[in-house]
Amino acid sequence: MNSNTILKLFRNTTLALALSASVHLYAATPVDQVVAVVDNGAILQSDLNQAVAIVKQQLQSQNQTLPPEQILRKNVLEQLILREAQSEMVKRYGIQPPEAELNAAVLNYAKQQGFSSLTDFQQRLDAQRQGNYAALRAQIAEEISINQLRQQQVMSRIKVSERDIDNFLKSPQGQAALGYQVHLLHFRVAPKSASATTENVNDVAKQLRVGLLGNNDINTLNQKYANANVTVEGSDMGYRSLAEIPADLAARVSSLQVGQTSELIPAQDGIHVLKLIDRKADDKKAMITQYQTRHILIQPSEVVSPEDAKQKIEQIYQRLKQGADFSELAATYSNDPGSARDGGSLGWVAPGVMVPEFEKIMTETPAGQISVPFQTQYGWHILKVDNVRQVDMTQEYQRRMAKQILAERQYDTEVDGWMRELRANTYVDIKDPTLKDN
């Protein structure tokens, strides 16, 4: 077993290590030595012993052979060093999880332990030893922060070009992932008698392939090219997802244009020929509602109090109700310079772009109407929806999905590269000579 196996295991069990450590954080440790110094942090002998015990348990549960004790301890220590290095970076960058996300993570762990509420869970932990719940919560917060750090660092290294996306969408894997379907004719050319030679079968298959270029009649083709020594069996496969077709055949189909035939495909049961009749994407469309929107923003400032901002937006609203032109008032009064120059126009806006308060009012306002004044984190707004439309975003959705799949493929490689760089740039002093590399 090599260090990569331990690394993969740690990625799946890091949270378990952190949680386990927190439960025993206040246990009495008569003698505890520093095994390694990592930047401003340290790894204790008890940390290493506990991590080794957990990794052993994980390996045994997977029926894997345990490596020699010293090799296991060295590999586990390396992973603890990497974790400590990430923890130190989290502290430097001041990364902290949102309170709601932390609460959800702690509650999820509590439910795994059989508790339905955080209050009950906290009482049980603190009854065992005062401060256990706070320690556990801190460990989970650290785990979330490390994951966030890793995402930020690694995703910035991943590059997916438009050409990469184009190539992926043309590939069998890409078309299968996006639900593409193909309509195929499938022919098998095989020996019919013992006297048939490989050359006979190849000749018939070549003739069939030429014949397929201008003919889709299966029965006619079967009868025309079969003979006493060679059989031709054709069938209409109908529309099928590329995921349902054997990978070797799907790879050949993906490069075909509609109406084209594949090269001859040798197999144990004869020679296969495919013809692509049609290709289509999933019938489901990604239809998005867009809103052609204008707004007027009044922001509080050093010279405009929140109350003054509210009063000003109310005055503008009254003028709009009396028939004033929205574009003129936006150009005159709006504190959003980007849209004010264009009469408050935000263009066509799709859900998910604006802050929730703005989006709620926008989606509830009928086309041609003006909203009542409302407040967001940016100040007080009035918006007008000029028009509403449905837009087919299927192609854009497919490209985003392809980019995500390609990025995920790169992720593990980039994580490994980032980890190596992090380790190389981290100050580490291993105190135990037996745990150092030779």
Descriptive account of the structure:
The chain is of the alpha+beta class and 438 residues long. It has 3 domains: 163 residues, Porin chaperone SurA, peptide-binding domain (Triger factor/SurA peptide-binding fold, Orthogonal Bundle), CATH 1.10.4030; 100 residues, Roll (Chitinase A, domain 3); 106 residues, Chitinase A, domain 3. It contains 16 helices and 11 strands. The strands form 3 sheets. The protein has a 4-stranded antiparallel beta sheet with strand order 4-3-6-5. Strand 1 and strand 2 form a beta hairpin. The longest helix has 31 residues.
List keywords for this structure.
single chain, 438 residues, alpha+beta, Triger factor/SurA peptide-binding fold, Chitinase A, domain 3, 3 domains, 4-stranded antiparallel sheet, flat
